[in-house]
TrEMBL record:
Superkingdom field: Bacteria
Residues that bear Phosphohistidine: H44
Species of the source: Novosphingobium indicum
Matching Gene3D superfamilies: HPT domain
Keywords: Phosphoprotein, Two-component regulatory system
Name of the protein: HPt domain-containing protein
HPt domain sequence ranges: 1-97
Amino acid sequence: MSEQLSRLAAIRTRFLERLEAQRLVLERSSRLEGANSEVHDIVHKIAGMAGSLGFPDLSAAASAVDMLLVTDNTVNLPGTPQFDRLMKQIEADLATR
């Protein structure tokens, strides 16, 4: 494996480790009134990084929640198709570790 591929693999590993922690925060914060700003910050970062690291489905799912929150920052996220899709995609991508 070239040095560049090795570095990319290390970055992907750190991303997935961070994603596990972010998943827990998303689960908790999505149920708290007034916490959508925190959720928005997290999903925006996931949307940007995931695509660059080879997780296009995760990027698309996070982008959908990002756009939902841009449209309505007071939406109750649990149970929305966008949030459910994101959480399922996070689980799927974490299972690839």
